[in-house]
Design a protein that fits this description.
- Helices cover 25% and strands 38% of the residues.
- The protein is of the alpha+beta class.
- The strands form 3 sheets. Strands 5, 6, 7, 8, 9, 10, 11 and 12 form an 8-stranded mixed beta sheet that branches. Strands 1-3-2 form a 3-stranded mixed beta sheet, with helices on one face.
- It is built from 6 helices and 14 strands.
């Protein structure tokens, strides 16, 4: 009888040990870093970089998350846009137009936290609408400037001479190129700390600095800011309407 009890106790202890081992195994599996998963966002970006031969910077800014279960379709920039919809980033192309470098700058903050809906009066410059804007660069100084609203510009475009005024050092800017209808223009790209139009603002906004003579005095408010919102430009009332997405 005593021997049977001892055997039963040993069996129970064995089961408990096995259960503990199983639970510890589950905990270890759950604790594995996301980048170790072949479907993690980091792994997907590294795979694309190896396939297409470009450099990725800022992987340490990625949060631990899996990539979308469906692979984005289209060319490389379109695929990267789909994968990085929750992040601010800069694409730098070589003279032939191929992606040379991807710089992940930061995670996007929720739209509600960074903006409020607003209707902002514009002024006319010929056929164009202008709006008063406040830019903040790396030096943290608020820099008021009037920008032309240009939905055809992929980013905020400023003359190169403004870079130092906004606090950008040469090391803080990356070389890039802009493809125009006639030629290729060398530019320098970076990230503004914030951009404010009326009561509406956004942080970590990509900016491109062009040779002064190419812009001929123009300063453009492009889609790196405008695409953060649902935008309407009322031609009749001269109003820019920005709504949270």
């Amino acid at each position: 009888m005593g021997s049977e009890c001892e055997n039963d106790q040993m069996t129970i202890m064995t089961v408990r040990i096995r259960l503990r081992g199983f639970i510890v195994g589950l905990l270890l599996i759950g604790a594995a870093p996301a980048w170790a998963d072949p479907e993690s966002l980091r792994a997907r970006l590294e795979s694309l970089a190896a396939e297409h031969g470009f450099v990725v910077e800022g992987l340490d800014r990625l949060e631990s998350q899996l990539a979308s279960t469906s692979t984005p379709k289209g060319d490389l920039p379109t695929q990267l846009k789909g994968l990085l919809e929750d992040y601010n980033y800069i694409l730098i192309s070589d003279p032939a137009g191929a992606v040379e470098r991807l710089v992940i700058t930061s995670a996007k903050t929720p739209t509600r936290a960074r903006s409020i809906n607003a209707t902002i009066k514009t002024t006319r410059l010929g056929p164009h609408h202008q709006v008063d804007t406040v830019l903040v660069g790396p030096n943290g100084v608020a820099f008021p400037v009037t920008l032309i609203i240009d939905t055809g510009a992929s980013t905020i475009a400023l003359p190169e001479s403004m870079a130092s005024e906004l606090g950008f050092s040469p090391e803080a800017l990356q070389p890039g190129v802009s493809h125009t209808a006639n030629d290729i223009v060398p530019i320098k790209v970076g990230n503004l700390e914030s951009v404010r139009v009326g009561p509406v603002s956004a942080s970590a906004v990509p900016v491109a600095f062009f040779p002064d003579e190419r812009l001929r005095g123009a300063k453009l408010l492009g889609m790196s800011f405008l695409s953060r919102f649902r935008m309407t430009l009322d031609e009749a009332e001269n109003e820019l309407i920005l709504l949270a997405k």
